[in-house]
């Protein structure tokens, strides 16, 4: 049985959802990713500077935040 309040659960759900506005920016593993609105892909670069495109699900698995 969980002791979390409805407010805590709602806050966790809001925080876990990726932004959906075109050109939104999030950070994952030290790299910035920008949402391409027309493709719904998150675009950034890997550790070697090569372009990388991730789906929302891939970005969720890797972990992300709104701040660096």
Oligomer: single chain
Number of strands: 4
Number of domains: 1
Specify the biggest β-sheet.
4 strands, antiparallel
Average pLDDT value? Answer: 83
**Unreliable runs:** none
The global form is globular
Number of helices: 2
Q: What are the secondary-structure elements, in order, as H or E?
A: HEEEEH
In short:
26% of the residues lie in helices and 28% in strands. By secondary structure, the chain is an alpha+beta fold. The relative contact order is 0.20.
Protein described:
By secondary structure, the protein is α+β, with helices and mostly antiparallel strands. The chain has one domain. The chain has helices at residues 6-16, 56-62; strands at residues 25-28, 31-36, 41-45, 51-54. Strands 1-2-3-4 form a 4-stranded antiparallel sheet. Strand 2 and strand 3 form a beta hairpin. It is globular, with a radius of gyration of 14 Å. The model has no long low-confidence stretch (mean pLDDT 83).
Helix-strand layout with pairing:
Layout (H helix, E strand, L loop, with lengths): L5 H11 L8 E4 L2 E6 L4 E5 L5 E4 L1 H7 L6
Antiparallel strand pairs: 1-2, 2-3, 3-4
List keywords for this structure.
alpha+beta; four-stranded antiparallel sheet; 4 strands; 26% helix; 68 residues
